[in-house]
Write a structure and sequence with these properties.
mainly alpha, elongated
């Protein structure tokens, strides 16, 4: 008579199967894109039944959200390292953070596309609230470094007074917009610039807008 599996062994087997499904989903999503990917394709790649996938993940959106957290973790680590390694001036830190985000886009385009896919559709309604909150919190953790750099610039008089969180959001929106635009072949042809060049020019505009302006003299 076979001996019953120990709880720890069951847990390991469950963790291994979940990891195998995520590995398969990563391959399918990266190759086909989220919209065209199917749970059937993920199950086939993982060599499990479709129903087995749903034991571990309630929906395709839940799988996407789980992979998105992987991408956000990678991005956060890059931003944290960039902030720590930059010279202590606020502008230098913002440039380092922007460079780290651009490098993430260049190195991890599959994860970047998943991030953009997550922004579409009704994903919030399709995943558990706690999973959505994890994604929101991790996204805010990444934005936190940009907020800190802007706070420093304002405190030191390098940047004009303003609400750091709002300014950070505007800066991120502009830089992210460049990457989204340049990812589209037609728009890339229309802009006639590569991603790093256009990105750097937009960053210069952002920093120029943040910088404090000397008060006008009387009569000006």
């Amino acid at each position: 008579m076979a001996r019953p599996l120990t709880l720890s062994r069951r847990q390991r087997e469950k963790a291994d199967r979940q990891a195998a499904i995520l590995d398969a989903a990563r391959e399918v999503f990266f190759k086909q894109g989220f919209r065209d990917a199917t749970v059937e394709a993920i199950a086939a790649r993982a060599q499990v039944a479709k129903g087995t996938v749903y034991i571990y993940f309630r929906s395709k959106e839940t799988i996407l959200a789980t992979l998105l957290l992987e991408g956000l973790d990678s991005l956060y680590q890059r931003l944290e390292a960039a902030y720590a390694a930059a010279s202590p001036q606020a502008e230098a830190r913002l440039r380092a953070l922007a460079a780290a985000y651009l490098q993430f886009y260049l190195d991890e385009q599959d994860y970047f596309r998943l991030m953009m896919a997550f922004d579409r559709g009704h994903f919030r309604e399709s995943i558990r609230p706690e999973l959505y909150e994890n994604i929101l919190r991790r996204s805010l953790d990444g934005l936190h470094w940009l907020v800190r750099g802007i706070e420093q610039g304002i405190a030191e008089g390098q940047f004009a007074p303003g609400e750091p969180r709002h300014l950070a959001g505007a800066a991120w929106a502009a830089l992210n917009g460049v990457l989204v635009l340049i990812s589209h072949p037609l728009r890339r042809e229309l802009l006639a610039q590569d991603a790093p060049t256009l990105y750097e020019r937009v960053l210069d505009l952002i920093l120029a807008g943040l910088k404090a302006r000397p008060p006008k003299a009387a009569g000006d």
